[in-house]
Design goal:
mainly beta; seven-stranded mixed beta sheet; 1% helix; disordered N terminus
Length: 2045
């Protein structure tokens, strides 16, 4: 089936759009939080220790980044930082010490033993570390690896720790004296004996000045004190401080003493040790816990839970410096009612607020909010409550607050409506007036330790106690709490629905207030710790793994993980906001997450999937298209796209058909779509809704049957009478009943196959579109959707009556809904045709094209021509309708001709058309007759590029409508120049098949991913459409489509796009303008994988009507600049200079950009019109009254307007392009426009003259929009493609115009194709400069993927050279900055491909550099990495012995012989043994094709040492294998093998490699040297198996010469056996189950006679033993001694020995066979009883691998045949062969695998399945039965089937009849794989009693396939999925059927009355009986009763009138039912006939 519509959807996430992004946008904060210390290192590097990790800043605190290198993921909270004198950094957590030697970039954990409670760290001068915990001080003398036991028990909480330069340790304590420790902290005393204030309730802080005299400072409640570390008395240094109370902190930093007094919120500074203090500087009151300074004015302080603050004015002002520090731990999140403000309670006081949806954050903590806030609640009236340290309320979105209550409300609080709930202890507190007053109710049954409270809509409160996770319910108004079950890890409420997370993988849901629960469970992969619920379906959870958030839209049954932005983030709170859906009509739910160790997360898109579409129905169908329609939910429409899936011919292989994007709802709640198909096929269709949250369930399934295609017989261009009627129930526009209108002479005109255009079908009864296209097929009429109407059902066409019925209705998107019917009747005759309109065009010097419009009711046309104005006219041609062209050829150049046209039909002829005249002249451009002229689409422009990599430029045109006004996707043409020059083939790109809802404005062709294939960017406009990126798959005209959405790329109008590598990363980026006042779009190419929107800078933020944009390096700084030509009325040109760093600066300083106002700029083109080396600018304006502009580049960033001249005339220019049309060495211009296409020829100085001749290209009736040039036929002259702009009454197609100029001595040319390597591969932005000296001229071109409006010239740069024959210089300046120069090129008149290459050739040497074993010789080889040329005058120099020695030879590089890229040089003398050689090569010795020279090679860069020639003499091995033929089994120890090895020098190793005969790998053993050249090797029993040992020898010398003996193969030692080790044991037994299959494998036996070999058995006696042999033809069993007397290897024998026996065969040898010499068994057709011919195990499966017609081994075990594989020694089995053939029996080795049926499964929905079926009866089993399917199976016998071997004693088997096979029946029947199957088998048994068939239904798999067993005898059906066995009587039930498939119950019908056997039997608690009634009668009188063994009635199970079918009844065995024998009796009567059946059952409890 054709895929008419297909698309690839790219999920949009944040700003980046590429595959696999997450759904979150990270807010810009809040940052800060619990920061504990900050240190300044060097430069601008700082470190901060926080509760969220270590953060590092390299910009002086402006921004921070978390450091994780070397830090354990669980070590998050850091409490202190310290830097020693050497710059080593120390950081502590509560348990570990980390160190860094690289300024905090990476860290190493130091301590191996944990400490506990680490808070403060100090480094002593000697490197010792001192660590303070809460009340202990520890010391480490080994760098922190370990800390000593407690040095000092501090008592109270330690508030400060300092270590002086003299190793004194000072400890400050809360409410206790300051202590001093000496002797490494082993001795302690008070610091200072006097002067310190009395101890009070105060937290002391200390600071230390380590400079002389080592002063210690302490802040007390009465002020600061100082103590010399060598003194004993404290002195007050309060000095001029007027304050009386002090509370805060004191620091010493950079010579300054800093005091923060929280009591007055002021900071004081002293520079003289406290003698004087500065006046206080205000700061926000909070505890300052750390301080550092970078200079006298640049300070940093840590405000505890608020983070880092910075001052640059010595503390006068402070600003937050927390950007990037993620240490906030938000307890909750509140979104204000306006949905724009985000509030998070601060870690200390106040709250963080964002007024711009998370973009920026501010701390609010003053006035009313200067309090600790535990939580925030939003009330029903949209006011906000904040509780904690009191309770405050805001009614204006947190703009202001009022205090409601001053009491503490720190416990969790809940709200229901406007009522507040909280608990204080065990009292439930309720407030109905915003917390002002509270009602307290004592609640019994709870402890008061709770951490969560929620209230439902009924006022019931639910709480969770944190100690044991118990959940309690406090009913509204009750004083008693009831514990609910289960306990909760977490719980949540939605209305009155309660959800309890009872475990990490289970959730309980209650809708009755906790009275009952239903449970939902999930996998441990989604284990959750917290939950939130939006609805009973939409649940959100935090996984028990940081960084993992989960969303469920099905109530928790399944979860989708949405990774958080930071992997260590853990979500504390979730809030959501309902926002209007993008396309209207519904709401999207957006999530806001408040995680710790992270920032606020916002979901980029909604998280609720859409509802399922419904009522999918078919409106109408034609042979290749159908209209489908479905309903969607309009009450809450949040669908972003509908995905239509289809399956051809079945409903099992669905795939995406198309995706409909950018939806908007309609009032009908319906959506329609035309879906394509193939004639005569069936298509299954279903629809689902999709949005960013996921997919909806599917709609119902719809089956579309596309009819076969018929040839339409509707007459074309005939007249009809039409009657339009409103359908019943619908009111026509402006009419009254009967809502009908009539019109005569309506025209139906044929379009494409089977389609017709109707010019009016509404006749005014509906006010929407009145023309349409219909499709007629086999008498059915189908209306193609036209945007207004669709087919309401198929209409009809009757060619006999000439009536056509059209059924139509409005599409769902037009109100009001309306349905109508139009009846067309073919008129008997037509009016005389209208007079045609004609136009004529100068086609060439001998041709004129006559063109006319379609004329109503014409059947043909008469074209007349005259040579005079008044005639006479002669008929030139009669042209049959519908042709509208005629090319009049062979005319006389210079003559004038006159033309007129008549339209004819059977009624008559029209009047002649107006006369048109033309003078025939030669033309500059002639239209090319090719497939392009079949294209009538109106196009926005045209782009050239080699889209299939064949070297010929193809066409891509952004079409927008066809000549019928229908939107169409872009048009593509393949250039067939390689095989059919000048011709083009239209190509269809599959992924664009349905992209006809948008207008394509531009196609940029370039290599997006640098893979050497050209890709496309399609800029589009329309309602909610996005641009497309098409990635070229394999130059095969298939592309992968990516939708390119951006946040502003909607509702666009005319717009342009350009390609540039703006950031010089080697990948081409996209700049796309807008035409709707939205910002432009700069899309960064993300290394060829995706596009990233970069919405920054004025270049994208400035808005305008950007129809035309371009890029050019206008200032020659090798950066592409951007220019925007605003279509506004009027506007200035906006230019943006590329700064070279990926940013742009708006260009000013020139009238072009500052003051020139231009109206409606539509096109712009750049070119160096005056060949001065910079690019000039042409601007075309759209209005026909506004002059165009030409600006000359002054070379200094400014432009001069070139007024006057033809080029600036009024032309209504829409498109433009520069190119050297006449190859004279200067750029000409062609503009496309409304008035005409115009050619302007350059005189070489930048002055242009309009090409005056009016030929077809420049005809005024030709309206073109875009235009582009390309030398499409590679003749050296630029050809032109102007894109058709509109559909006219006299319509022309698109035409390609060929340049008619011919090559000459004055029209030379060069075309340059560039391939970037370091630059983008398309070389966009590269500049090509061509310099010629004769004539002297310099030309420059820039490679661009755009020219003018909507178009792009070829990426191949074209240069006209005029008469120049030599190019002095060709200079390429690449975007990478590389410059390539080619000098004196004579390669003109051709296309030159140049690859970016500025590096010279590189070398590979032979002998290689640093070789120590270079061979002796006289050759040197140099291999270059590319084609290169040696340069005359450059040399290779050879030195010997040392670098500085005198050269022994110098060789010119031109003297070498060449082989490819290798140059070989011959030395004057051969190199010498063991000498050092040094080779050097001159710089520039070789140049590549771009004249890049090679680098010099110094003597040290090519040096080698020679060695002597290798030793070529091989060792000699001497060994006599006849000395080692055999050994006795069990030969013991002491055996050896002796071999000799010698060499001309020495033998370095002599090894024996040995293996067992069955082994696959050899083992090595080294010989022991004895004397001379003799070696001994041990012979161990472990080297052997029972077949012997194989071995060979290998000797090596020092040169690596190796000799093997034997040269091929191996030697062999076999084992000899005797009576002690040839025993065959036969178990005792006398029954059939005791038979065993035996074989004799030995060679060299005393005899093969049984009487000799089996003498232990005695004389033949059938009562004591039996030996049987199977005979195949005829089949029979032969018994010893009458049937045979001897045994043979390879044969098998059935043996039965009543008393058992151990048979000893005497002396014998192991077989001489080996893996290379296998034993062969010659099989006969049929069954063969074979035996193992080896004294080791043989593998039968491996033996038959690759063979056909040979079955597997059937072993005999316990009386039954089983599948076998291996044959152990003395064993055998049956094998079957289709035909006689030999089989080589393989030994079982470690590699033995063989043929296996392990590929089969028993899962019924697989392609390869087998169900084994076991048959049991009378203690016997049959194990070879079964059925199956396999794709490679045959209906008759193959390797997948099985047969039953001959029976040895009685028969019991399954038999599948196969009369085509000579064995007639199979035991296992495998057939070709199919959806359904049916087998028939029989039971063959000569045994007595009931039999059982059994199978394993547990292996059938979870699928819809069924397997049914049908007992034909008693009409019993067994569902093999529900049962695993079936019991039956083989004497009654001998034939069965097996059914496979789906819905089998409806397919299996009984054909008689039958009673099954009861099961189980015997029965204990229940007995089940089944019976069948056939369809021979419609009703039966049925009785089913139970009788005991005496015939007494026991129970009636049924007595009723029943219909045909299968019935099953269960008899419940009550306790009063005694043990015994009972009889079921079934009585059935119908139509006077009756029958009775009985079955017996034993009851045995």
């Amino acid at each position: 089936m054709k895929r008419f519509f297909s698309t690839t959807v790219l999920i949009f996430s944040g700003i980046i759009f590429s595959f696999g992004q997450g759904i979150w946008t990270a807010a810009n904060g809040p940052f800060g939080g619990n920061v504990n210390d900050v240190v300044y290192l060097t430069g601008d590097v700082m470190l901060a220790a926080s509760a969220g990790g270590i953060y590092r800043s390299t910009d002086n605190g402006s921004s921070w980044a978390r450091v994780t290198s070397g830090i354990n993921q669980f070590d998050v909270s850091f409490t202190d930082l310290e830097v020693d004198a050497a710059g080593k950094v120390y950081a502590i957590t509560y348990s570990y010490l980390y160190t860094s030697n690289d300024s905090g970039t990476s860290w190493t954990k130091a301590n191996t033993t944990q400490f506990f409670g680490g808070r403060i760290l100090k480094v002593a001068p000697d490197g010792d570390l001192y660590l303070a915990t809460d009340n202990q001080v520890l010391r480490s003398s080994n760098g922190g690896v370990s800390f000593a036991n407690t040095l000092y028990v501090a008592g109270n909480y330690i508030t400060g720790l300092q270590v002086s330069a003299l190793e004194s340790v000072f400890v400050a304590r809360q409410n206790q004296s300051i202590q001093k420790g000496t002797n490494n902290g082993t001795s302690w005393s008070d610091a200072g004996s006097s002067g310190f204030p009395a101890i009070a309730n105060h937290t002391y802080r200390i600071a230390l000045d380590n400079a002389s005299p080592n002063n210690l400072y302490a802040l007390t409640e009465v002020g600061p004190y100082k103590l010399s570390t060598t003194g004993s008395a404290w002195t007050s240094v309060k000095s001029n401080l007027a304050e009386t109370n002090f509370y805060g902190n004191i620091f010493y930093s950079s010579g300054n003493l800093i005091l923060f007094n929280n009591d007055v919120s002021k900071m004081f500074t002293s520079t003289d040790g406290g003698a004087t203090w500065s006046s206080g500087k205000d700061y926000f009151r909070s505890e300052i816990i750390a301080f550092t300074s970078k200079s006298a004015t640049e300070f940093f302080k840590i405000r505890g839970t608020y983070g880092v603050y910075k001052s640059v004015d010595a503390g006068i002002s402070w600003n937050s410096a927390n950007s990037g520090i993620r240490a906030v731990n938000p307890r909750s999140l509140l979104i204000t009612p306006n949905n724009n403000r985000l509030l998070i309670p601060a870690n200390d006081k106040g709250y963080q607020i964002s007024l711009d949806d998370g973009g920026t954050w501010d701390l609010v903590s003053s006035g009313t909010t200067d309090r600790y806030i535990a939580g925030m609640l939003k009330l029903a009236d949209n006011s906000i409550i904040a509780h904690g340290e009191g309770l405050i309320r805001s009614g204006n979105d947190a703009t202001s607050w009022t205090v409601q209550n001053t009491n503490g409300f720190y416990s969790p609080m809940a709200v229901s409506g406007n009522v507040l709930y909280t608990l204080q202890g065990t009292n439930l507190m309720v407030s109905t007036n915003y917390g002002v007053n509270w009602t307290s109710t004592a609640i019994s049954g709870i402890s008061g330790n709770y951490d969560k409270i929620l209230v439902d809509n009924s006022g019931n409160a639910y709480i969770r106690e944190w100690s044991d996770n118990r959940v309690y319910k406090i009913p509204n108004g009750s004083s008693t709490a009831t514990q609910l079950s289960p306990n909760a890890n977490d719980f949540t409420l939605v209305g009155n629905t309660l959800f309890i997370l009872s475990s990490s993988t289970a959730m309980q849901k209650s809708i009755d207030g906790g009275s009952s629960f239903t449970q939902t469970t999930w996998s441990t992969n989604n284990a959750a710790t917290k939950i939130w619920a939006y609805s009973d379906k939409d649940i959100f959870a935090m996984r028990n793994q940081n960084g993992k958030f989960q969303i469920s839209n099905d109530g928790g049954s399944s979860w989708t993980t949405r990774d958080l932005v930071h992997t260590d983030a853990f979500v504390n709170d979730v809030k959501w906001v309902e926002k209007n859906h993008l396309t209207g009509g519904g709401k999207d739910l957006f999530l806001y997450l408040a995680p710790n160790s992270s920032v606020v997360h916002k979901s980029t898109n909604g998280v609720i999937p859409p509802k399922a579409p419904s009522n999918l129905t078919l409106k109408g169908t034609t042979y290749n298209q159908a209209t489908i329609i479905w309903d969607f939910d309009i009450t809450n429409f949040n669908t972003e796209s509908f995905v239509i899936e289809s399956s051809e011919g079945n409903n099992t292989s669905y795939s995406e058909y198309t995706e409909l994007n950018y939806l908007y709802p309609n009032t009908l709640g319906k959506w329609d779509f035309p879906i394509g198909g193939e004639p005569g096929t069936q298509l299954y269709v279903k629809v689902k809704g999709v949005n960013s949250a996921g997919s909806s369930p599917y709609s119902n399934e719809l089956v579309i049957n596309f009819p076969a295609q018929c040839t339409s017989d509707i007459p074309d261009n005939r007249s009809w009478t039409a009657v339009a009627t409103a359908d019943p129930g619908f009111t026509a526009t402006g009419s009254s009943p009967p809502f009908i209108n009539t019109a005569a002479s309506i025209r139906l005109r044929a379009g494409t196959v089977n389609t017709f255009d109707i010019d009016d079908y509404l006749l005014g009864i509906d006010n929407t579109n009145n023309n349409a296209i219909i499709d007629e097929n086999c008498g059915q009429i189908y209306l193609a959707q036209n945007g207004y109407h669709l087919t309401s059902s198929n209409g009809t066409w009757d060619p006999i009556t000439g009536k056509l019925i059209l059924k139509w209705e409005t599409t769902p998107f037009y109100d009001p809904y309306f349905k109508g019917t139009t009846e067309f009747t073919l008129n008997a005759s037509d009016p005389v045709p209208n007079t045609p309109d004609i136009q004529i065009y100068l086609y060439s010097g001998t041709e004129v094209l006559i063109n006319w419009g379609q004329t109503n009711f014409a059947s043909d046309f008469t074209l007349q021509r005259a040579t005079n104005a008044g005639g006479p006219y002669t008929t030139v041609a009669n042209i049959t309708y519908p042709s509208v062209f005629y090319l009049d050829k062979n005319l006389t150049t210079g003559a004038t001709y006159y033309y007129r046209l008549l339209a004819n039909n059977a009624t008559g002829s029209s009047a002649p058309s107006s006369v048109k005249s033309i003078q025939v002249q030669n033309v500059l451009f002639r239209p090319v007759e090719n497939d392009i002229q079949l294209n009538f689409e109106n196009q926005q422009g045209v782009s050239w590029g080699d889209l299939d990599g064949d070297g010929w430029e193809d066409i891509a045109s952004p079409s927008f409508v066809n000549n019928a006004g229908q939107s169409v996707p872009p048009v593509f043409y393949k250039n067939l120049g390689a095989t059919n020059p000048g011709q083009f083939e239209r190509k269809t790109i599959a992924v664009l098949a349905n992209e006809n809802t948008a207008v394509s404005r531009m196609i940029n062709i370039f290599d997006f991913n640098n893979d050497g294939k050209l890709d496309m960017y399609i800029a589009r406009s329309g309602t909610l459409v996005s641009d497309l990126l098409l990635i070229n798959n394999d130059n095969d005209w298939t592309f992968t489509k990516t939708i390119v959405p951006t946040t502003d790329n909607y509702l666009t109008g005319f717009r342009g796009s350009a390609v540039l590598d703006y950031n010089k990363d080697g990948y081409a980026d996209i700049f796309a303008g807008q035409d709707n006042s939205n910002r432009a779009i700069l899309l960064r190419n993300n290394n060829g994988s995706s596009l990233v929107d970069e919405p920054i800078g004025t270049v994208v933020q400035d808005v305008g009507l950007e129809r035309t944009i371009s890029t050019i390096d206008f200032d020659n700084d090798n950066d592409l600049d951007i220019f925007i030509f605003d279509y506004a009325n009027p506007a200035k040109v906006r230019g943006y200079k590329n700064n070279g760093d990926g940013t742009f600066t708006k260009i000013t300083g020139s009238p072009l950009f500052d003051s020139d106002l231009i109206i409606n700029m539509r096109t712009a083109s750049w070119g160096d019109i005056d060949n001065d080396g910079d690019f000039d600018l042409y601007i075309g304006t759209q209005p026909s009254s506004i002059a165009n502009r030409l600006y000359v580049n002054n070379g200094n960033g400014t432009f001069t307007s070139a007024s006057g001249g033809d080029i600036t005339q009024v032309s209504a220019a829409y498109g433009s392009t520069f190119g050297d049309i006449d190859n004279d060495g200067d750029l000409d211009l062609v503009s496309a426009g409304f008035l005409s296409n115009i050619i302007f020829l350059n005189d070489g100085t930048g002055n242009f003259t309009k090409y005056a001749q009016e030929e077809m290209l420049t005809h005024p009736d030709i309206f073109s929009i875009g235009i582009a040039m390309c030398d499409f036929d590679r003749d050296g002259f630029l050809d032109i493609y102007p894109s058709k702009g509109q559909t006219n009454a006299i319509d022309l197609p698109n035409l390609l115009y060929k340049n008619t100029l011919n090559p000459s001595g004055s029209r030379h040319w060069l075309e340059v194709k560039l391939v970037g390597t370091a630059s983008n591969r398309s070389a966009i932005g590269a500049k090509v400069k061509v310099v010629t000296s004769s004539p002297s001229r310099t030309q420059i071109r820039e490679i661009s993927a755009r020219t003018g409006y909507g178009s792009a010239n070829s990426l191949i740069a074209h240069f006209g050279l005029g008469s120049a024959t030599i190019i002095s210089q060709l200079i390429i300046t690449w975007p990478s900055g590389a410059v390539q120069t080619l000098n004196n090129l004579t390669t003109i008149d051709q296309v030159l491909t140049i690859e970016e290459d500025v590096a010279g050739p590189t070398f590979t040497f032979n002998p290689s550099h640093n070789s120590t074993s270079a061979p002796i010789g006289n050759k040197l080889d140099i291999t270059l990495n590319e084609n290169a040329t040696p340069v005359a005058g450059k040399f290779i120099t050879i030195r010997k012995t040392s670098v500085g020695s005198t050269p022994i030879q110098t060789i010119a590089v031109t003297a070498g012989t060449v082989n490819g890229n290798t140059f070989s040089y011959t030395l004057s003398a051969s190199t010498e043994y063991e000498k050092d050689y040094f080779i050097s090569i001159d710089a520039g010795a070789f140049v590549d094709k771009y004249q890049n020279g090679s680098l010099a090679v110094a003597p040290t860069e090519w040096t080698f040492k020679t060695e002597e020639a290798p030793d070529l003499t091989f060792p000699i091995i001497t060994f006599n294998p006849n000395d080692y033929i055999s050994l006795p089994k069990g030969f013991g120890t002491g055996n050896k093998i002796v071999a000799l090895a010698s060499d001309n020098k020495s033998v370095t190793s002599f090894s024996m490699y040995y293996r067992k005969v069955t082994a696959t790998q050899y083992n090595q053993v080294f010989g022991s040297f004895t004397s001379g050249s003799s070696y001994e090797y041990p012979l161990l029993e472990s080297f052997f198996d029972d077949m012997g040992m194989e071995f060979y020898f290998e000797a090596k010398d020092a040169a690596g010469n190796t000799t093997r003996s034997p040269a091929t193969g191996n030697y062999r030692i076999i084992l000899e056996f005797d009576d002690t080790n040839t025993t065959l044991s036969i178990a005792s037994g006398a029954g059939a189950n005791n038979y065993q299959i035996r074989s004799v494998p030995f060679e060299n036996l005393p005899s093969n006679e049984i009487s000799v070999l089996f003498d232990e058995l005695g004389q033949p006696d059938g009562t004591k033993y039996r030996i049987l042999r199977y005979k195949n033809n005829p089949e029979s069993w032969l018994e010893y001694p009458n049937g045979f007397n001897s045994v043979a290897r390879g044969e098998g024998y059935f043996m039965l020995v009543r008393e058992g026996a151990n048979i000893k065969f005497g002396s014998a040898s192991a077989p001489t066979n080996s893996q290379g010499n296998l034993f062969t068994i010659n099989l006969v057709a049929g069954w063969n009883l074979i035996g193992n011919p080896y004294t080791v195990t043989a593998s039968w499966n491996e033996s038959i691998a690759g063979l056909t017609g040979v079955g597997g081994l059937k072993a005999y075990q316990n009386g039954a045949y089983v599948d076998g594989n291996d044959m152990p020694i003395f064993s055998g089995g049956f094998v079957f062969a289709d035909v006689a053939q030999p089989v080589s029996v393989k030994l079982k080795t470690s590699l033995t695998g063989g043929r296996s049926k392990s590929e089969f499964t028993s899962e019924l929905n697989q392609q390869k399945w087998i169900v084994p079926i076991k048959l049991e009866q009378a203690g016997s089993e049959f194990l070879l039965g079964g059925i199956g399917m396999h794709p490679m199976s045959k209906v008759t016998y193959d390797d997948f089937d099985d047969l039953t071997p001959p029976a040895i004693n009685g028969r019991l088997e399954l038999a599948f009849k196969h009369p085509e096979h000579f064995m007639k029946v199979f035991s296992k029947d495998v057939v070709p794989t199919a959806d359904n199957g049916e087998w028939t088998f029989s039971i063959i048994s000569d045994k007595e009693g009931l039999a059982t068939l059994s199978w394993d239904p547990m292996k059938f798999g979870d699928n819809s396939k069924e397997l049914m067993l049908f007992d034909l005898a008693i009409q019993k059906v067994v569902d093999m999925r529900q049962s695993n066995a079936y019991v039956f009587d083989p004497k009654a039930s001998t034939e069965f059927k097996l059914y496979f498939g789906e819905d089998l119950q409806s397919k299996i019908l009984p054909n008689g009355v039958g009673l099954a056997y009861p099961v189980p039997n015997p029965a204990r608690e229940t007995s089940t009986i089944s019976f069948t009634l056939s369809e021979q009668s419609s009703t039966y009188q049925v009785g089913l009763e139970v009788y005991d063994m005496m015939g007494r009635f026991v129970k009636r199970l049924e007595k009723n009138t029943l219909g045909p079918g299968f019935y099953t009844y269960r008899w419940d065995l009550d306790k009063d039912v005694a043990n015994g024998l009972y009889t079921y009796r079934l009585s059935v009567s119908s139509n006077g006939n009756s029958v009775t059946h009985a079955r017996k059952v034993v009851v045995n409890r």
